[in-house]
Amino acid sequence: MLDRWTIPHARSLWRAHPAVREDDTLTIGERSADRLRNGMGSWIFVFAAFVFLGAWMLWNRNTGFDPYPFILLNLVLSCVAALQGAILLIAARRSNQISAELAIHDYNTNAEAAEMIVALAATTAEILKRLDADQPSAEPNA
Questions:
Q1: Burial zone of 21 (CB within 10 Å; 0-12 exposed, 13-18 middle, 19+ buried)
Q2: How is the chain split into domains, by residue range?
Q3: According to the model, what pLDDT value does residue 26 have?
């Protein structure tokens, strides 16, 4: 059984799906939402935030422009938290939009396949009917 760990680059496979629009057809807001989602939802962002916070605290230990209790740092982090909530909602809405586009494409594909199956069944029934009509009847000689 294949899972996301055995398929190479499975996390980016949805981009190859025919229902997912390419970058040139996306609006500026959709492109930036994708970039923010991919950036803020990564380990690189988490480690960069830790490095930034650690550097801020080390640089401002006692003599910096923002000495302990780091009032300015608290203000910056509060602003980031307030904006990050809105950014995450935008990114979630974009993810929902992608999921909806994929679901619509999958539904349309299934509907087309159902139509093809019905047409194939009708063609098969017609072929069988013609084959039965072409077969000579086996009448016993009396």
A1: middle
A2: 19-98
A3: 78
